[in-house]
Every structure is written in C-alpha cells, then in structure tokens.
Design a protein that fits this description.
alpha/beta, Immunoglobulin-like, 2 domains, five-stranded mixed beta sheet, four-stranded mixed beta sheet, 22% strand, rod-shaped
Length: 314
C-alpha cells in the first residue's frame, strides 16, 4: 500500500441553533431567568363563628329558654300564668258578632237525658242584655247558632213536681279559630237532684218557693265553663312551643360547634315561632334573626396553624 494518509487534527464543529429556533426564527434568550414575588397571601374563609355570632347564639339560647317556659305555662292549664279560658276570652274580644255556635246535652243527676228542658242563654252587649232560648229534644240535646263569642249566662230550667228548678252557669263561648268562620262550643250539663234544689234558699226568703235556684256563676267568675276541645288545643299549643324551643336550641348548639352562620340563622328563625303569651320570644327571635345578617365572616391565611389539619397534605 501507499504511504499512510496524512492525518489532520480534529476540528470543532460549529454550534448550530436549536432546530425549533430554525423553524420559528426565534432564539432562546441567553440571559439568566429572573423571578419576582408579591405580598399577596392565599386566604380562606374562617370556619369558626365570629365572636359577634357567638354572642347572638347565647341570645338565641335565652330566647329558646323563654319559649320553653311559655310552652310549659300553656301545658299547665290549671295553674299557669294565663289559663285557657283567659286566652280564649281575649280572642273573643276581637271576634265578629254572631259567629259562635253553642251545643250540648242536659242530663239529670242520674245521668238520664232531660227532654223539654229550657236552655236560656243571655249575654251583655254594650250594656244591653240579649237572650236566646231553646228546648232540649228527646235526647236532651240543644243547639244555638249566631251567638256572640265571649261570656254568657246559661240557665237550665226544668219543670218537675210543680216546681221550676233553675240551674245557672257562666259559660265562655269560643270565637272562630284560625281559618274557621264559626267558633264551636260544646258543653254538657248535669242538673242537680230535686233534693239539692229543695235545700237551696228561696230568692224571696220564704220557706217554700215555686222557683228554686242553684246558681254557680259566683264561683265561676274567674274561670267559666268552656269547651273541653278548646282547652285541649291550648295545651297542644304549649307542647308545640316547647318542641320548637328544643329544636331551636339544638340548631344553636350545632352552630356553635360547626361555626355555620346559616345554621345560627335557622335557629333564630325557629325561635321566632316560640311566641308565648306576650310575644316576647317572637320579638326577640326577630331581632336575633336580623342581627345574624350583620355578623362578619373574616378571612384567614391558608397557612394559619388553626387550620393545618384542614389543608390536605400532598
């Protein structure tokens, strides 16, 4: 073979631009990259209830306690601050005239129905006494319509053995309730025996009298006779108030634990309906409900130590 080919030293190849630069015609910047920062902080809404919200929660608990006490007073019809007859009487003061229906049955002292007994109802209307009367049927039943709601005197007149026995009671006629246009009152009467009437003194002071009276109206001045159903509704309302108060208190405790302003607002709305006799719980509940809209919801940094457990770890 011939002489070895002359070897030339390695020559560096010229660095070419990136092929993307060739395609786009742009060159990658050669200067060092610079970063900038700002004072912006990532925040979240504070899940804890604001101190103002906690104060409102305590106020709502107080309202619920008032509602419960009012409900307990309703349920204790015999010894409450306001009794069923007083409550119904207040409603009757604003009821329209001739909106009461009165019915019942008249029995003798042995429980037998008294037929043809006269039921005489009288009531005071602005200083003028009005009256209405009917006779009981063969079953001892009677019914009046278009009476005025409120207090009335009811005389049961029975003629027997040549005597007229008058049994007088004070009665509260129920007014219309809720959407009903008519108020219904149903009361049964048991007329005392002839022996009891014979022991009653005569009105003229004589030893013998043709008309004998047993008048229970003096002892019924504070609490007249009333429909048992109306008293039962009154007691039921009391249990309803107590139930709403317990529900409202439960929502309040839930709001304190969860920090939810919406739950606290619900508790205030529920307490609004635990009204009571003088509507104090109702008014307080309305104030508490309005105050919940003024409670601020501050935002806290996401890195706040109080909420580290709430931020999921990567």
């Amino acid at each position: 073979m011939g002489a070895d080919a002359e070897q030339t030293p390695f020559e560096p190849v010229e660095q070419k631009d990136d092929y993307i630069d060739d395609l786009t015609g742009l060159q990658e910047p050669q200067s060092a990259m610079m970063f900038s920062s700002s004072d912006a902080v990532l925040t979240i809404e504070d899940p804890n209830l604001h101190p103002m919200g906690k104060a409102i929660a305590v106020f709502v608990l107080f309202i619920c306690m008032l509602g419960f006490l009012y409900g307990l007073d309703y349920a204790r019809a015999e010894d409450g601050l306001v009794r069923p007859d007083e409550f119904v009487y207040r409603l009757s003061l604003t009821a329209p005239d001739e909106t009461a229906t009165f019915r019942g049955t008249v029995y003798d002292h042995q429980g037998e129905a008294l037929a043809n007994a006269t039921v005489y109802v009288s009531w005071d209307e602005e200083g003028v006494w009005n009256y209405s009367e009917v006779l009981t049927d063969s079953e001892g039943e009677f019914e009046f319509e278009r009476l005025d709601p409120g207090l009335a005197r009811v005389d049961i007149i029975v003629e027997r053995d040549g005597k007229r026995d008058v049994f007088a009671n004070r009665v509260l006629l129920s007014p219309p309730a809720m959407i009903e246009p008519i108020g219904f009152t149903e009361i049964d009467f048991t007329v005392p025996s002839q022996e009891e009437f014979a022991q009653a003194p005569c009105s003229n002071g004589a030893d013998e009298c043709e008309i004998r009276n047993i008048d229970l109206t003096p002892e019924q001045m504070e609490h007249p006779l009333m429909d048992p159903g109306a008293a039962a509704v009154y007691i039921t309302i009391g249990f309803g108030f107590m139930g709403l108060s317990i529900i409202g208190a439960g929502f309040t405790v839930w709001a304190l634990k969860s920090g939810s302003l919406l739950v606290l607002r619900t508790a205030a709305a529920v307490s609004f309906f635990a009204m009571g006799h003088y509507y104090t719980a109702c008014l307080f509940g309305l104030v508490a409900f309005g105050l919940t809209f003024a409670v601020p919801r501050p935002r806290i940094p996401l890195t706040d130590p109080r909420h580290q457990d709430e931020v999921p770890s990567s």
